[in-house]
User: Fold these one by one.
Assistant:
Number 1:
Amino acid sequence: MNLKLCFFVCSISIIIISCKREKEIQATKEIKVNLIKQSDQGPFPSMTSAFNMVDTIPYSLKGIPELDTISVQSTRRTSEKRLKKLLEQGVISSSVFDELNTKWYAISGIKGNKQIIILDENQNFDFSDDKKYIIDKKIRETLRNNEELKDSFPSLILPYKRYLNGRIVNLDLRTKILPHKNFFYFAKANPSPKELTYLDLLLVSSRREHWLGDFQLDSFNYKTAISDHWNRFQIIFQEKDKPFYSRRNQDKEYEEFKKGDTVQLGAHFIKIDSVGADLDKLYLQKLDITELPNGYKEGQQLRDYTFTDIEGNSQTMSTLLKNKDYLLIDFWGTWCVPCLQLTPDLKRIHQEYPHIAILGVDFDFEKEPGVKYIKEKELDWTHVFIERVRKDTLLRKKLVGKLRVDNYPTFMLIDKDLKIVYRGIGKKALNAIEELIVVNKALEEQ
C-alpha cells in the first residue's frame, strides 16, 4: 500500500470513527434537575426505623435518670455495615470511619404511669443537658395507626455527616422520636428480660424528608421526587401539572425507580445517572430509543424469564403459557394480609378458567412459611420463591425488581406473546383481570 493510499484509508477510518462517536453523543443528552429539600408529608410514606438495644452501656454515658424501668437504645444515620465495607475496600480511612460512625443514644423508661424519653441530641454522652419528654405510658401501645397522635410529637433537626460520591457531606436529619411497643418485632422463643424491656420501651425514628425538582423533555414538563432510605434513593416521576400517585393507590400502579434504571415518560426514555453529593441535583440522560428492551408496563412485552420453582424445576414464562391463553402472575407474601385474603378468588379462577396458567411469586424473608401455606391451601399451580432482602442491588436482579413490583398483591396478565395485557394492585385488579378473561373468551367463541 503506497503512502497516499494509506493516508486516504486512515482519513476515512477517522471520519467513520468520528461519525460513530458523534452518533453516540447525540444518542444521550444530560439533564440536570435542581432539587429542593422538603419536610412535609409529600408523596412518600414516612420512613420509620427502630432504635437498637444497647447491650453494654458505655462508661462515658452520664446523666442517666433513676426510673422504675429503663432501656438504653441507640440509632445512627449512616449504616455501620456499609462504612465497614468501605473501610475494608480502602475507600475510606480509619479516621474518616470514626468521623462517620457516630450514633445518638436515647433513654426510654417508665416512672409511675409516665414514659420518659431523652435523646442525647448534641451527642456529648450526657443526658442531663437534654430535653426530657414525658408522656402517658399507654401511648406506646396505640401509636402505630394514629397519624394525628404521631403529628403531635415535636420534630427534631439532627446534624450528621455522611459519605456521598467520594466525600464527606454535612446534612441535617428532620425526624420525630416516637415510642412504639414491639415495633418490627419477630417473636423469639425465649427472649431475655433485657430484650423484653427493650421491646416494651422501644423507640423509633420517623422522618418524612424528601427532595423535589422539575425538568423539561422537549416541550413536555415533568417533576420528580426523591426519598433517601439508608443510602438507597427511591425516585418517582410525574407530569408537572399532575399529582404524584401514592404507594397505596389502587387505580394506578405506583412506580419507584433507582439509580441506573431506564424510565419511560410519555414517548421519551431517560436513564437515571446519579444524585449529587449534596442531594441538591439529580442527573438524568435522555436516551435515543423508542422502546424498552424488557417491559414491565401494560402493552409492553416481557422477556422470557427463566426461574426455578419451589419444586426445583427450571421454568420459563413461555413454558407456562404452552397450551394456555394467558399467564396470571400473582406477587404475594405470607406477611401480606390482603394477599392471603385473595387466596379463595385465585383458587376459584384456577378452577373455572383452565385456559389460564397461574404463577405465584412468593416474596418472603424465608421460604418455609410460603411452602407451608401453599400446601395447606392446596394452591396447585406453579410457585417461585423470591427472598425478601434488604440489599437493593440484589433485589433489582430478581423478578420483583426487574418488573418494578413495589406493592402487594400485584397482578399481571400476560398473553401468548409475553405482552402485558393488564397490571394492577389488589382485589380491584384481580376483578378487572377476570372480567378481561371472560370478555376475551366470549369474543373468541363468537
Number 2:
Amino acid sequence: MAKNSDKALHEPKFQIVKRGEMPWYKSWGVRAAAIILALIICGFVIVFVTGYNPIQVYESMLEGTFGSSRKIWNTLQKLAMLLCISLAVTPAFKMKFWNIGAEGQTLIGALATAACMIYLGDVLPGAIYYPVMFIVAILAGMIWGIIPAYFKAKFNTNETLFTLMMNYVAIQLVSFCIVFWENPKDSNTVGVINRDTLAGWLPEIFGQKYLFNIIVVAVITVAMYIYLRYSKHGYEISVVGESTNTARYIGIDVKKIILRTMAVSGALCGIAGLLLVSGTDHSINTGTVGGMGFTAIMVSWLAKFNPIVMTLTSFLIVFLERGAGEIATKFALNESMSDILTGIILFFIIGSEFFVGYKINVRKNKEGVKK
C-alpha cells in the first residue's frame, strides 16, 4: 500500500501527449488564435515602450505591404524569392537531411548567373544565352548541394556543419570574383551588370519587372507539390525520412536518394540565385541572398513541408519584415523595436505548433476531480 501511495504521490500532475492528426480548420484556428494573442501582447509592448497607439502601428504595417502598387509588387517579389528557397530546402528536410546551406547554394547560383551576364551577355544571341544561363545557374547550385550529400552518403559526415561551412566558402568565392569585376572601390559589391545593353536581364511582362520571377516560382510551387505528394521520388524521400533502415529493407538505395534529393535542392537554389541577379538586382554582392536561406528553414518547418501552405507562411514572414521596416521609418523607431515586435509574433506562431501537435492531460484524483 505504501508503495502504491508513493507511486501516486510522484505521478506528474500534467502529462504531454502527442495528438492524432488535428482537422485542418482546428489547426489553423489554433494558429489564428496565436497570432491574435501575439498582436495583443505587441500592443501592450508598444504602449508601454513608445506610448504610440497600437492600431496606428498595425495600420503602418499594412501600409508597408499594401500601401501602393510599387509596395505590393515588391512584396510579391520578396515572397516569390523566399518561397523559392523554401521549396528548395523542403525535399532535403523531409528526408531528414539537415541542409543549412541554402544560403550558399543560392549565392553560388547567383555568382554563376553574374558570370554568364558579364562574359556571355554580349556574345551569345538571346535564344541561346538565356537557356545557357539557366543551365549554368542550375548546375552551380546542384554541384554545391551534391558535395555535402556525397560526403554524407559515403562517409556519414555531419551534413549540418558541412552545409553551414559551405555557406562561408560561397561568400568568399563571391568576394574573390568581385575583385576582378566592375566595382574596384568596394570589394563587397558589383555595379549594375550590362546597364546599357540589358543583356541577361529577364524580360518584363505586361510592364512589370518582377512578374517573370513570380510566374516561375508559381510553376515551381505546383511542380514541387506534385513531386513530393504523387511521384515515386517523393514517396522514396518520405520513406528515407521516416527510417533509413526501413528504406533499405524494402530495397531503396538510400545513398542514391540522398544524392538525388540534394541535387534537386541545389538546382532550385540555383534558380533562385538566377532570379535574384538576372530578374531583380542585376548585380551581385555578398549579401544578395540576404539571409533568406536561413529564413526558408523556418518557412518550410512551419508549413510542415507542404509547398502550398508555404505560400502562406512565406507571405506571413515577408509581411512582418516589411511591416517592421515601415514601423521603424514612420514612427522614427530604431530597428530593435520593429525586431522585437516581429520576434514576439514569430514566437507565438512557432509556439502554437506545440499545441497543434501535442495536448496536455491533467491527472485526476480518485474522485475524478482534476488536480
Number 3:
Amino acid sequence: MGRHIPIVDETLRDGHQCLWSTRMTNEMMLPIAQRMDRIGFDSIDLIGGAVWDVSVRFLKEDPWERIRHMRKLITRTPLNAIVRGQSLWTFEVFPNDVVELAIERLQANGIAQIAVYDQFNDLQNVEVCVAASKRVGMMVMGTLVFSWSPVHSDAYYADKAAQFVRMGADEINLKDPSGMLSVERIGTIIPALRKAIGPVPINIHSHCMTGRAPEVLLAAVEAGADKLHTAISPLAHGASHPPAEWIHDRLVERGHITGLDREALEDMAGYFRYMCYRWNKPRGEPVDFDARVLEHQMPGGMISNLRNQLREVGIEDRLDEILRETSRVRKDMGYVPVVSPTAQFMVTQAVLNVIQGERYKTVPDELRKYCLGYYGKPPAAIAPELLERAVRKGDKFVSGRAGDLVAPSLERIRKTRGPFKTDEDLLNAVFYGDEILKPLFAARAQANYTRFYQAYNPLRELLSQVTRHRHIGYIGLRGQVGGEDLKIEMTK
C-alpha cells in the first residue's frame, strides 16, 4: 500500500556545498525562493556548516540576512538549519551561553527546524542544542552520522536514536555524508531504528559518492523510512544528493505520493540549469561505484579540496597513498566518522605521516586535544601508538561535555568588543575577528537584496541572451500563456 513520503530539499544548503564549493549567493537563491515555496517540500535546508562560514569569509554575505530574506519569500515551507552540537557551524567548541543564544536567534530570524548532530555521535555534546531548540519551539531532527566500522552496528545506531528521542528529538535523521549506505544495510538498519524509536519519523540523508544513494533511498522507503532528502537535478548526483525529480517519479510509480508539484519541480530545475550556465557552475553527474570510498570514507568535497591543496605543493600524485593512510589514521582515532571537524584532523595527520615517512612523528595540537578528550568521546578506544605520540608530559585527560570545558564568553565579548546593536552581531563577534567582520559589515551596509526578489523572468532572460548575438536579425516566439495565444516578434 502506498504511503506519503515527504521530501526535504537540500539544494540551497548541501547541494551547492557539495558541487559548487559552497558558493551559491543570495543573488542566485532569492529569485527562485517563492517558486520553491509552492512546490510542496516538507522543508527546505538553508544554512549551517560550511555554508555559514563561506558566506561570511568569501561571499561577504551575512547569514542572518540570508535567513531573514528567505523567510520573507518562503512563507509556507519550514526552513531548516543544521548545527554541529557545541561547535554550531565552526570547528571551535563554544560555551553553553553562546550555543543557547545562537539557537534562540536562529528561531527568531525564521528557522523553524533544526538538525542537530555531533561528529562522534557523542550525544552529551548535543544536549544544550536540543534543550534550547525545544525551549523556543523548533522541531528537532536528531541526526546520527553513518559510518562503517566494527563499532557502527545497527544496534549502535538504534541505541543512539533512542537516546536522541528521550532527549526530545522529534525526528531521527540518518546522515550518510560519503554514500556508505547500501541497499542491503538500509534493509537492516531501518527496522532496528523503528524498533528502538517506535513511530518517530526516520529521515534518510545520503550522498551519491558511491553511486548507490538513489537506490538506497528507494529501498529505505520499502524498509519503513518516512522522509527522504534530495536536491534538484542540476545540483544532484556526484558528491551531492539524489535528484528530487527522479526520486519523485520512482516513488509515484511504486504507488507512493510525495506532495510535490511535478511541473513546479521542473520549473525549479530549469532555473538552476540556467544558473549553472549563467555563473559557469558545474552540474552534477552520476558517478560509477568506487570501492575506494568504502575504505577512506571521505566526502567528495573534502577530496577535491585535498587534491587542490596537494597540487599547490606539488604532491598531487600521492593522493591515493594519503587516502589509504587516512583510513589507517581513522582506525587509530577510534573509528570516528569522517565528518568535520575530525575529518580534517585525520587528513592533516595522514598527509604528515606520508610526507615525513614516519607515522605520528608530528601530531598537530588539534589532534592532541582530540586524544585528550576535549571534543568528546570517540566511538572506540584510541590506538596506543597514537596516544603515545600525541600525549605530552603534563597533559591532562578530560571527560564530560565539551561545552562545560570552556568558560561563558558572551559578557566578555560585550565588554571587550561591544557595544552591539543586535544579538546577531554579538554572535558574529564571537565567531569571527574584526579582520573578517569589517569587510562583511561594509558589504552588508551596501547590499540591497530585495532587488533579487523578482529578478528572474525566463522570457526576459531568453531575450537578453539571444539579443547579445549580433548575427541574429529576427526573433519569433509563439505559444500559450493561461490559455491565450502568445506571439512575440523582434527584428533588429
Number 4:
Amino acid sequence: MKSLYKLIAFAYLISLTSMLNPAVSQDAEEPVTLGLNHMGFSVSNLEKSASFFIDTLGWKKAGGRPDYPAIFVTNGSMFVTLWRVEDPETAVAFDRRKNVGLHHMAITVRDLDALHALHEKFKQTDGVTIEFGPEFIGNGPSTHMIIRDPSGLRLEFAVPASRIKK
C-alpha cells in the first residue's frame, strides 16, 4: 500500500511541476483541452451533500435544477454539480476497488493549519466519514487526508509541498 501512495505522490508531484513550471508548457503545443470545467457527481442525499460543500467548506450555491433535481456549488475557482440519483433508497454505493468511475476528487487546501482545521470540522460534521486524517503523501512534505461526504463521495484535501512553509 505504501508503494501505491508513493506512486500516487510521484504522479501528483510531476503533474504539479508541469502545471507550475511555465517553461514546460511553452515548449509544447497547447493541448486542445485546457483544464477541468466542472465535476458532476450523482449523490444519494442532495441536501446533505450540498450542505457539506456550502456550510462545511464555505462554498456558494451557484444555481440548480429542481426538476432533475440538482444543486450547483462553487468556491470561486472550482464548480461542482450535484445530481440526486433517481431512487436514493436503491442506489448502489461506489466501490473504488470494483467500479469504473471517479476514484476521488482532490481539492487543494491553503496550508497545513487549514487542513488540520478542516479535519477537526469534519469530525463534527454529521454524515462525514474520515478515511484517514492528515498524513504525508509518500515521504512528504505534501500532506493530505481523505473523507467521504454524506452521500459517500470520496474527497481528498491536499496541501502541496509548495504551500508548506519551511
